[in-house]
Amino acid sequence: QVQLVESGGGLVQAGGSLRLSCAASGNIFSLLRMAWYHQAPGKQRELVATIFAGGNTVYADSVKGRFTISRDNAKSTVYLQMNSLKPEDTAVYYCNADRNRGPPGRYWGQGTQVTVSS
What we know:
Layout: E1 4-7, E2 10-13, E3 18-24, E4 33-39, E5 46-51, E6 57-59, E7 67-72, E8 77-82, E9 91-98, E10 107-108, E11 112-117
Parallel strand pairs: 2-11
Antiparallel strand pairs: 1-3, 3-8, 4-5, 4-9, 5-6, 7-8, 9-10, 9-11
């Protein structure tokens, strides 16, 4: 079982930056595929970015060049650096993880709200 706890959301003006963090429990973090999803009101949850155990990354077209996903295996933490934020980035952001199932993986965080004002 893996527990995920997100932090770092908040209110920011368009063009600003935020960094989200997701801390994972357990001792298999380095083996996990980690991802960030977001869900805007009235919309389906969407994949934003993925980082694989080996470090490769994949991004949704809507965030390429603006968002960066990274991981620190020593801290069992994955990050999402969000720059040049737009109002349409407003959503609840969820951390997601699994070793070999999905996507999406079996494990979800509780979510953190990101609000971008225009």
